[in-house]
Amino acid sequence: MRGEATKRPLMVASENGRRGLEAGMALLRQGGSALDAVEAACRVVEEDPDDQSVGVGGLPNVLGEVELDASIMDGATLQAGAVAALQGYGQAITLARRVMEETPHVLVVGRGAERLAAELGIPPQEQRTEASLLRWRERFEERGLDPTGSLRLLARALSRPLPLRDLARQPRIDTLGTVNFLALDQEGNLASAVSTSGLGWKYPGRVGDSPLIGAGNYCDNRYGAAACTGMGELAIRAGSARSLVLYLKCGLSLVDAGREALRDLLALGTTDSQYMNIVALTPAGEHAGFTTVAGKEYLFQEAGMAEPQLAARLQLEA
Ligand code: GLY
Fold first, then answer.
1. pTM above threshold 0.90
2. Domain 10-128+177-315 classified CATH 3.40.50.720?
3. CA of 229 relative to ligand 1 center, distance in Å
4. Minimal CA–CA distance to 263: which of 314, 316, 227, 226?
């Protein structure tokens, strides 16, 4: 954990957020808001085809379609917006923000989200890349199915659900990925954003923790912000992001609040491939990362730092 001496503004991110942090911090240093900073940071990662867990180039579902999930929360107003299972459009975090600001809703999914994107003038954009489709095909090849064969299997699966369920059944460590950004601006406002293509080879329509306020994302100026990466089903079942912030509200230190949130996750039965990570930031500028597996880190950048730094996440084992 890093802390008390921290000067505003500052940002915290998951390990894959380096380039986004640079964009977000540049905005904060010019007096930008925490909300603008987390959105801008997410957009950088969403548009990076080399990140195979977020936006363009994200890992497809079992049918070979990229479905995006994203959410954003404003710690000053406690307003939130989210989209899930969005296909054929990028800018998922911007669409989530527009759900927050331009509709009375918090979460819009699937065809509704795509319709809203079109209404708002967000251009359609292919999210699959050659690299992401190659990885998608590899999973079939590992199971002894050549790509042609796998396509035949998928065609059959459309009328017979069992084979799809079977293919989507076993999440692996390399199928997880998401980006988290938390920001504290010069005014002392907190914001949080999460964006992901979700679990690779997921069942079509599967929604993880990232777009669910309280599960993968929560933010309250009074107590703190938290966001998750990892096996979303765990954070949904434990309500992890909200729990951590609630533990802060109950008076626990940041480290103890994170430990409690991890204990709630461990009670579900985490494993090396079914793990969860949390990043957290308080209104005082303390930040920390938490994890149920060894060797995980998170990124932070404080006002006086020229570039983001990695720090170890606190691990709690079963
Ligand atoms: N944590 C991202 C997901 O499970 O979809």
1. yes
2. no
3. 6
4. 316
